[in-house]
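Case study 2.
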Amino acid sequence: MKINTALILSAGFGKRLNPITLKTPKPLLKIKDLTLLEHCINLIKQVGVKKIFINSFYLKEQINKFIEENNFEIEIKVIEDGNTILNTGGGVLNLISKINNEDNFLVFNPDTIWTKNYKTEIENMIELYFKRDLKNLLLLVDKKLSFDKNLKGDFNLNNNLITQDQKNYIYTGCQILNKSIFKDKLISNFSISEIWLNLIKNNQLYGFESKLKFYHTTDLETFNKLQDL
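Prediction:
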């Protein structure tokens, strides 16, 4: 089985990268002459996904213009959050409400530098997701592999089961999810972590371990250091 549609979360304010995000949305900041958003789109194409939906809110006109002016050779639609920002959970729910006849989605935060090195890991992640008939699967990395040593862990991971008894693993910003995990949720401002915490309580949140060095644009200091690599 395949995943046909990827979602990219691009609505946020990027406040930890002020002042450079006061005039430029974070997904359009450049690392090595490519925007964070381009890195993400290029990886999605490598994985073989057919369509991309991007949500927008802050400086949304720039996101729209960027997509319109570039030919990425893949179908891309930009969907606005609306009058108020919807956060990660509401943003995803709003996007999937616009997509018919699909249940499973690949979701990215463009804060991570998504190089093509991730292609094999994400393909293996998709394979595991369908093989085990999962409804969610988060890509995690051991915090020892993080370029930013100030990043704290989010979860523990044991045999693909996510817990919070220890926090040695960082969420990379990539996940696969089935729309059923949003049952009873309305489109509103809420974090995807609310969904995750409920799943953890029932031993139903799953993870896949990345073995790659993790580069995340956490803040302005880290962003500047990443330019020198």
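The chain has a mean pLDDT of 97.
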